[in-house]
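Run log, item B.
One chain of 198 residues. Sequence copied directly from the ordering sheet:
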Amino acid sequence: MLHSPSEEIASAAARLVVDEGMEYAQAKRKAARVLGRRQRGGAELPSNELVEDEVRAYLELFCADTQPAELHALRQVALRWMQRLAEFRPHLAGAVWRGTATRLSAVHIDLYCDDTKGAEIALINLGVDYDVASSDAQAELHYLSVSEHNADLNETVTIFLAVRDLDAQRGALKPDTRGRSWRGDAAALQRLLLTERT
């Protein structure tokens, strides 16, 4: 039984994350709106950790037979892109890193660059078509997005490349409140892939 508005929002947000492929921030805002919860400075919105707990519970209940293979396929996509862009010290983030991704999830990779244009030049040199966007929350943060069809999922996978300043790498492995890292490098991802059962 849910005991607080925050937990109620987290549960509703988790369904949106899994069923519609929403990111946590968007899912929390939509869940709060649908439930009629007014946001007072964001105070009622649950933490990402609480939403992630609800996502894990939802996956266990409704997607246990499909999600592990989908996660494995997305992690393989991420590793390929991290290897292609190794010069930019890539770190995998988001649901694919945290283990809650499904076939609808995007792959999020942080790149740490001396020159923010370097990643774009690398994609051009690889012959990769990409789009450019900036974050709503941080206009200075540059995002590149690429897409590829994945045969294992029979889906088009979107890969978001967050182009960060090289100095930001120092905080890349900062843990969450439970001691788990929000992102990992290619070596850490390879270790996860070796331990997965599909």
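Observations after the first pass:
- The chain has a mean pLDDT of 88.
- The CA atoms of residues 111 and 164 lie 6 Å apart.
Flagged for discussion on Thursday.
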